[in-house]
Specification:
By secondary structure, the protein is α/β, with parallel strands linked by helices. It is built from ten helices and nine strands.
């Protein structure tokens, strides 16, 4: 497959490992059926033994498709970076091999980014589907994107994002390769702390496949650990940037909670509300007394966050040690 002759409007990057060929075929077909046709599709095969999928891709008669086969499994984060390094498009769109794009996805994201030059990343809403393609949850990300909520959870659908090629001038490689999971959350916090804007379109433009097999029970502890590592970095850098903690406090969650609570009494904000909750959640998973301290917090944080977050804290499984 020879390289395309001109620089496309959009470069779509997609990695696949052991997804069923039917899912890969549906993902690729949904891209080829886009109303915006000025794109290149950069595929990274992270499993050189996935012969069936490799053979299928090589047989697609479309010069916009380029396939790279890793010599061995290196994981999605490094694979994303390999594909992004090859990208020639003005915009770069993410895609997963088990998801399905709706036909107007690229067109609508490009149109939004061109109307809003101040926005660096554009995501979309999704419906969740099961292994057979049946919709199991509608409007998965039905709340408007709230940057303050990023201190609690990742509310951006990674497979839907489109971002400007110019982000590579800020950080290259774009994804932090220390994070084999939660690499997207680490990137969002890196961008938000540096003033970049991320917007989520309300419209559903991708079907997000959700199955129990996607992340094994053995991998979930590591996924949780890496999410919490990125979350702690996000919170500590925000507090440090606002003069609330000193550099030496950044590893001390107890001190961060104490100083964030004091700052909240002086200048309350939505960001601090969610930061204080996240710190209580982190401490409460290891020290049960912090669950009760949260309920009696003098800043009344329990009444300032969604009720579901309080339930999440009170019902969180206790862990034996506190990660620092």
């Amino acid at each position: 497959m020879s390289p395309i002759a001109h620089k496309p409007k959009v470069s779509i990057v997609m990695s696949f490992f052991d997804e069923p060929l039917q899912w890969i075929r549906l993902a690729i077909d949904s891209i080829l059926a886009q109303t915006l046709q000025d794109f290149e599709l950069l595929l990274i095969c992270d499993n050189p033994e996935h012969d069936e999928a490799i053979r299928y891709v090589r047989n697609i008669a479309d010069r916009r498709i380029r396939l790279t086969i890793n010599a061995a499994n290196i994981g999605p984060t490094k694979s994303f970076n390999i594909a992004i390094a090859q990208a020639q498009g003005e915009y770069i769109a993410r895609m997963d091999a088990d998801d399905i794009c709706l036909a107007e996805r690229l067109e609508k994201q490009v149109a939004y980014l061109e109307r809003h030059p101040e926005v660096s990343v554009c995501a979309t809403n999704t419906h969740s589907i099961d292994g057979k393609g049946k919709i199991i949850r509608r409007n998965r990300y039905d709340k408007k994107h709230d940057r303050a909520l990023m201190f609690i959870s990742n509310n951006i659908a990674h497979p839907t994002v489109m971002f400007r090629q110019s982000l590579l001038d800020i950080r290259k490689p774009l994804y932090n390769e220390e994070f084999i999971y939660s690499q997207d959350y680490e990137l969002w916090q890196h961008l938000l702390l540096r003033g970049h804007l991320i917007h989520t379109l309300d419209e559903v433009l991708l079907l997000y496949r959700k199955t129990e097999e996607q992340i094994s029970s053995a991998q979930k502890p590591l996924q949780t650990e890496l999410f919490e590592k990125a979350q702690k970095s996000f919170i500590s850098e925000w507090l440090s940037n606002h003069g609330i903690i000193r550099h030496e406090d950044r590893e001390d969650i107890h001190m961060m909670l104490k100083k964030a609570s004091c700052a909240y009494r002086s200048v309350p904000s939505k960001e601090l509300t969610h930061i204080i909750y996240a710190l209580y959640l982190s401490l409460g998973r290891h020290e049960l007394k912090y669950r009760f301290k949260y309920l009696w917090d003098s800043n009344l944080i329990v009444f300032r966050v969604r009720f579901i977050f309080t339930l999440r804290l009170l019902c969180a499984k206790k862990r034996p040690s506190l990660h620092k």
